[in-house]
Every structure is written in structure tokens, then in C-alpha cells.
Amino acid sequence: MGRLILLLPLLFACAPLGGEAPLLPYPGGFAQGGLVTGRFQVALPGTPLLLDADGEALYAAYPFQLLVFREGRLESLPLPGVPRFLRAAPRPVVGLGEGVWAEGEVLPYPARDAALTGEGLLWVGAGGLYRDRDLLRPGAFRQVVAWGGGVVALGEEALFHPEGWRLPLPGAVRQAQASACGVVALLEGGRVYLVGLEGARPLAEAEAFAAWEEWVYLAPGPRTLSCREVAWP
User: Fold this and answer.
1) Do both 165 and 180 map to the same domain?
2) CA 81, chain centre distance (Å)
């Protein structure tokens, strides 16, 4: 807890200087100005740069620190830099530009996004989809999501690994997260799609989103909808 107290001034520096704090969706609810509602109920010490959650914990990333809220308690973990991306599931990873923080270690991979799975660290970078140091599939990908026993890498197309199937998308993906119905993806221009082996179906318009089970949390809002409204039979 001492580490948390020492870093409080830095965390408050992340908060907006004026106006209303942005609404941040996370898997299971929303946060605004550090106040988290929904599946997790907690007052964070400032607006996080990135927010995500798995089935057991909420993860809030700040410069040089990752806060973990689990079973009513906050834990502070040091980060060696400013986070660029955060994924809570299957296991937490934080992107740091030229490296990836994973389970307390910093791995020297220049990832745009990553998923820590039983197969290893799968990440997307300039050359395509990688597993640790090995290039698995070439491509221009921005996001990678664990889904369906493998991963889906997304850019202007979706690549399903390990099958190798590729699906063209109606635009470039900015953000992606797994849901009970498939992969939910936010494209450039603010269009949210549900992506699966059957294709891509429009779901909503938003500036940001998060997915948890069948529910999609949208901002501006707060708004929620079920992915089953557009899912394939």
C-alpha cells in the first residue's frame, strides 16, 4: 500500500484538468473520473489511461503502475513505462512500446497488441502475427484477441489462428474484444461490428466499447446492448 500512496500525485495527474471526465467502458460496466460502476464497484485514485477486466479482477493502467482490484482490495504493481495497451484476458499483459509486461516480466517485443495464452505470447507487430519471436502469419494487424480456442488478429482483415482463415473487413479495426457471440470490433469511423467465421455484422456506432459475455458497453452513453441481437443463429 505504501507504493500506492507514493504514486497518488502521479495518478491524479492523469485526470482531466477541466470539464467532465470521459466515460470509459470496461467488460462489465463503466468508469468516469476514477469512479467505477457495474461488475466492479471501486473509486480509483484517478482516471486510468486504460481499463480492462477478466472474470475475477479489474485492471487499471497508469504511467508506471498497474492497479488490480480483486475481492475488494487494490494491489499496486510497478510498470517500467507508460502503457500503450492493456489486455486482462486470458492473462494480463501491458504494452510498453518496445516491450510487453507479462506476469512481472518485460518481454522485448514491439507489440501493437498481445494476448497471453496457453500457446505463449501471441502479439501483432509490423510484420504480422507472432508467437514469442516466431512470425506465424504475415499481415497488417492492429489488434489480437483470444477467442474460440485460438486467437483472431485484426486490421483491415481478420485472421483466425491456428486455422489460417482470413476474412476481409469493411474498414480498419481500432479496438477489438471477445464476446459470447464472436469478436466485437470498433472500426475507423466509429462503426462497431460483430466478427465471426460467418462474416461481419454491424452492431452499433460508438467511440469506445467493451464486451463481457453477451453484453457490449458503449460510449458515448452509457449504453448497453446484447450481441445476440445480431448474432448468427
Assistant:
1) no
2) 18
